[in-house]
Amino acid sequence: MVSRLTDHVFSIDVPLPGNPLRNLNSFLIKGNCRNLLVDTGFNMPESREAITGGLAEIGVEMNDTDIMLTHLHSDHTGLAPSISGPDSKLFMSGIDLKIFKLFNDPGYLEELDSIFLSFGLSEQELLKNKRLNPAMIYLPEKDAEYTSIDDGHVFDLGTCRLECIMTPGHTPGHICLYDRENKLFFSGDHILFGISPNITSWITLPDSLGSYLESLKKVRDLEIERTFSSHRQVEGDIKKRIDELISHHGERLDEAEQSVRKRGTATVYETASDLTWSIRAKNWDEFPVAQKWFALGETHSHLENLKMKKILNSTIKNGLISYSIA
Ligand SMILES: [Zn+2]
């Protein structure tokens, strides 16, 4: 389904079957010479059909279109190499691109595994996650050449100028696009209206929650009239949403601190089981393993933020991290 948002901005509703995110809002911005497609969907047939159908409905050729990926996640990057034309350029932040390329590196994946084991995830759950986690299985199947972009890079399409605003947090190199003149903002997964973006831990971003909250404040200072977000509801009141997200994480931090206080010492797994989650599962034990994986990353980012603020300490024993009150 295609919606026309402005004279030259269109959204394409791309389904993400079987995923709690439900859909991706991909954006096509028409330019005078070249168009820009922002994000693509999972590398799976249902996503592919929707995006190629949407582009045909708008009437653009992929060969006249470049692709900008707001961040490295497979629901954004999955189809980029396979739907692009021979002349299309694929853009991603240099920071995310570096990590994205590591997804093919067994050493990096092993390091990631040992991190999730240190959170208290069992070997069995880890193996199951590898088979089922959409973050891993719907990545692009073929390699491609990507052009790295940085904060301040401008896409001058003739019809509008889109400025890259680096917003680390959801991923270390997440980028939003800002049309300063028309006060339009493409928020990617940095700000979502229907759900709160997942904040997880990254090897290269020690306090991802702290970075995320900083990035929210940075966007709050921009003059924005319309925001286009990547999942579920396309538009909403961005300032109100930023305030809600900041207070949401404040509450989550309190919850995580209370969990450690109550337990004396707590692993990431234990604290994750104490937090309230909005997914459809009766209790922590019944969480689908891929959702457990996201929940552990999210919990860890909150515990690490509390540690950064010197509210918690952590120790590592037999490869397992535990937190206690500082
Ligand atoms: Zn996403």
Q: What features would you describe in this structure?
A:
It is built from 11 helices and 15 strands. With 326 residues, the chain is an alpha/beta fold. It has 2 domains: 200 residues, Metallo-beta-lactamase, Chain A, CATH 3.60.15; 103 residues, no CATH class. The strands form 3 sheets. The chain has a 7-stranded mixed sheet. Strands 8-9-10-11-12 form a 5-stranded mixed sheet, with no helix packed on it. The longest helix has 26 residues. 45% of the residues are buried. The structure holds zinc ion. Zinc ion binds next to helix 2.
Distinct ligands, ions and cofactors found in the model: zinc ion
CATH-defined superfamily of the largest domain: Ribonuclease Z/Hydroxyacylglutathione hydrolase-like
Strand content: 15-25%
Gross geometry: globular
Remind me, CATH topology of the largest domain? Metallo-beta-lactamase, Chain A
Tally of distinct domains: 2
- Unreliable segments of 5+ consecutive residues: none
Assign the CATH architecture of the largest domain. 4-Layer Sandwich
Distance between the termini: 52 Å
- Supply Rg: 20 Å
Tags for this model:
Metallo-beta-lactamase, Chain A, seven-stranded mixed sheet, five-stranded mixed sheet, binds zinc ion, 326 residues, 38% helix, alpha/beta
